[in-house]
UniProtKB/TrEMBL annotation:
Compositional bias of kind Low complexity: 7-16
Chain positions covered by the region annotation Disordered: 1-24
Any single Pfam family the record assigns to this protein: Aim19
Name of this protein: Uncharacterized protein
Superkingdom as given in the UniProt entry: Eukaryota
Alphabetical list of InterPro entries matching this protein: AIM19
Keyword terms of this UniProt record: Membrane, Transmembrane, Transmembrane helix
The keyword Transmembrane helix belongs to this UniProt entry's keyword annotation: yes
C-alpha cells in the first residue's frame, strides 16, 4: 500500500486517462476535422445509423410501390446489428477498431446499395440510410486512415 501512495505523491505512476484521450492513438486533427474528431471517436454517429437501420426494418415491402428500391429485410437487420456492435466497441474506448468496423461496413453497404438507392423513384428512408452510411464512412474513415498511428 505504501508503494501506491508514494507513487501518487511523487508523480512517477501512470496518469489517469481523461475521457478525450485514447491510449492507442495520440494524433489529433488540425483544421476543419479538429471539430469533427470527437464525433469520430464517439459512439453517437454509429449508434444513430444502427437505429436508422433498425427502424427501416419495421417498414414492410407491402407498403412500398413496386418500382421503389428498398434493401432486403435481412440486410437491414444485419447492418443494424453490425453498426450497433461497432457503437459498443467505440463505447469501450477502442476507437481504432470501432472506427475501422464502421468504415468497412459503411463502405460495404454503399458498394451493395448506392447505385440503386439514388436512382429515381426514391424512398426517403433509403436515401437516409445511404446518406448516413456515406457520412459515417467519411467521418470514421478519416479518423481510421488519417489520424490513427
Amino acid at each position: 500500500m505504501s508503494d501506491r501512495s508514494s507513487s501518487k505523491s511523487t508523480g512517477s505512476g501512470p496518469k489517469p486517462l481523461t475521457s478525450t484521450e485514447d491510449p492507442l492513438n495520440n494524433s489529433t486533427a488540425k483544421g476543419v476535422f479538429a471539430h469533427l474528431q470527437p464525433y469520430a471517436r464517439s459512439k453517437g454517429p454509429a449508434l444513430t445509423l444502427s437505429t436508422l437501420f433498425a427502424l427501416s426494418a419495421a417498414v414492410p415491402h407491402t407498403v412500398l410501390r413496386p418500382s421503389v428500391y428498398f434493401p432486403q429485410y435481412v440486410q437491414r437487420v444485419g447492418f443494424s446489428l453490425v453498426f450497433g456492435g461497432a457503437a459498443y466497441v467505440l463505447a469501450t474506448g477502442d476507437s481504432r477498431n470501432g472506427s475501422g468496423i464502421v468504415t468497412a461496413w459503411s463502405l460495404t453497404y454503399l458498394f451493395l446499395h448506392l447505385r440503386r438507392s439514388i436512382k429515381p423513384p426514391h424512398h426517403p428512408l433509403t436515401l437516409a440510410m445511404t446518406g448516413g452510411a456515406t457520412v459515417c464512412a467519411g467521418l470514421y474513415g478519416t479518423e481510421y486512415f488519417m489520424y490513427q498511428t
